[in-house]
Amino acid sequence: MNQKLILPLCFLPPLVAGCTEKSPERPNVVIIYADDIGFGDLQCYGANAVKTPNVNRLAKEGIRFVNAYACASTCTPSRYGLLTGEYPWRRKDTGVARGDAPMVIRKEQYTVASLLRDAGYSTGVVGKWHLGLGEGDFNSQDWNGLITPGPKDIGFDYSYIMAATGDRTPCVFIENQQIVGLDPNDPIAVSYTDSFPGEPLGRSHPELLKMHPSHGHDMAIVNGISRIGYMKGGKSAWWTDENIADSITGKAVRFIENNSPEKTGKPFFLYFGTQDIHVPRVPHPRFAGSTTMGPRGDAIAEFDWSVGQILETLDRLGLAENTLVILSSDNGPVVDDGYKDQAVEKLGDHKPSGPLRGGKYSAFEAGTRVPFVVRWPASVKPGTSKALLSQIDLFGSVAALTGQPIPENAAPDSFNSLPVWLGKSSDNRSYIVEGSGGTLSLIIGDWKYITPGKGARYNPQVNIELGNDSVPQLYNLPEDIRESMNLAGQKPETVDMLKQKLNTIRESAKTR
Ligand code: NG6
Ligand code: CA
């Protein structure tokens, strides 16, 4: 973290800082982190085929950002960047994690949750984790006992999580690092290398499936859906996909109720990662069929319901005024991500990427430019902002919000962007780095540069242009938001400038 850039709480304008009698106390902080919701998937970002009244309300009462970026175009690296303030591409092992991966954020690392815990907050994580558990080798976790290290070691007092994704084993909820509802007489075993003899698999027993894979996802069968990874035993703990949103939303609501400042004398921090709208998309019957778009649209409606439950809880407990709610997504959208769930057939006119090119997995804009809404009624004036914003700055911004010092070497890439996030300043971040597999992109001013590489240009399974090319790419984003005209050949000096800047960022974590 660039120490010079941290504004202690009391140097901020009074309304932000909480330094005058009338100004707010340190706010509670709630992050609602959607999975795979694209720039065009929400009504307040232009979607028509699905109604998202609760997100609309949040956006109306807060600031809706239109130039906000996740750190990467897939889940694990984006979450790594969000929580650590370090670009995921600085480390090799931050790619999409297996369900039996060791914890990607090492227990020695200092996260946003560590910082808020040290600042006196009650801290909790609920929902999708996908950052590995345990340490050392793959699949060395004690799935039947205490799974450690885990969220507690990196700052979360409370956790109720899915280890990886809905489509990966183990398909169980893990509360405070122990699998919920496990029967000791039916121990669970997980593997990503060997199947368990006698356990039916999607590829050998398709007749047992209620939803079929379109690619991959042909291993362990849970709830009539085959997954990535093998699993045996632990049946009493297996989740039912239709109930995941209810289960995790309920736990998020309970966390807020149990940790309201009135009860504990402390503010709280909740990091709520939804399973919606990742595959497999199996919303509760309340939402199934509620849109014309099939399960993908219904999952957006279910996501919106979860948001509504959080907002209602804050209202009911009188906490809305002084709670900073941030809503965003971990990466861009994908339509067919491995299951035959009618997402392609029923898409209609809906444009998950909005006007952008690419999608999840892509170096083009739709991979990482995501919805981003900030609401804090006590301090934030509603509106829309075009400021450049990166999720990498969560760390520096909450450090400034709380005045909590950042230890040496923590959050090397995170800046204090709090004034921009709260709409107090339009002093934009001067650049954005986006990561997509091994490809990096850099945005400065009007220009976006994409590094050349050997990666495929197109992934036919998911029908997404990945943005890779063997030659450098340069786009003028304000004039060409769809990145259709590569100007690298015409503007070699601009390419050089961006290339050099990217090299400087690669070499040093502390340049702005
Ligand atoms: C891919 C999976 C995809 C999804 C993704 C991770 C296959 C064929 N595809 O490998 O379904 O799970 O990984 O998504 O296995 S993320 O949002 O968690 O990054
Ligand atoms: Ca994701």
> Quick one: CATH superfamily of the largest domain?
Alkaline Phosphatase, subunit A
> What would the principal axes of the Cα set say about the shape?
globular
Taking the sheet with the most strands, its summary is: 10 strands, mixed
| Helix content bin | 10-25%
Report the average pLDDT across residues: 94
In total, how many domains does the architecture comprise?
2
Measured on Cα atoms, how large is the radius of gyration?
A: 22 Å
Gross CATH architecture of the largest domain: 3-Layer(aba) Sandwich
Distance between the termini: 11 Å
> Uncertain segments of ≥5 residues (pLDDT<50)?
1-23
Strand elements, count: 22
Query: Beta-strand percentage?
Result: 15-25%
What is the CATH topology descriptor of the largest domain? Alkaline Phosphatase, subunit A
The top level CATH class name of the largest domain: Alpha Beta
- How are the strands of the biggest sheet laid out side by side? 7-6-5-4-12-1-13-14-2-15
The kinds of small molecule bound in this structure are: 2-acetamido-2-deoxy-6-O-sulfo-beta-D-galactopyranose, calcium ion
Helix segment tally: 10
What does it look like?
By secondary structure, this protein is an alpha/beta fold. The chain folds into 2 domains: 25-177 and 240-421, Alkaline Phosphatase, subunit A (3-Layer(aba) Sandwich), CATH 3.40.720; 431-507, Arylsulfatase, C-terminal domain (2-Layer Sandwich), CATH 3.30.1120. Helix content is 20%, strand content 17%. It contains 10 helices and 22 strands. The protein has helices at 14-17, 53-61, 75-84, 112-118, 244-258, 261-264, 295-316, 394-402, 418-421, 492-507; strands at 28-34, 63-65, 68-69, 122-128, 158-162, 173-175, 178-179, 189-191, 221-222, 225-226, 230-232, 268-273, 323-329, 372-375, 383-385, 389-390, 431-436, 439-444, 447-450, 458-459, 464-465, 473-476. Strands 7-6-5-4-12-1-13-14-2-15 form a 10-stranded mixed sheet, sandwiched between helices. A 4-stranded antiparallel sheet has the order 17-18-19-22, with helices on one face. It has a two-stranded parallel ribbon with strand order 3-16. β20 (458-459) and β21 (464-465) form a beta hairpin. α2 packs across α7 and α5 (244-258) packs parallel to α7 (295-316). It is globular and about 65 Å long. The site of 2-acetamido-2-deoxy-6-O-sulfo-beta-D-galactopyranose has 17 residues, from loops.
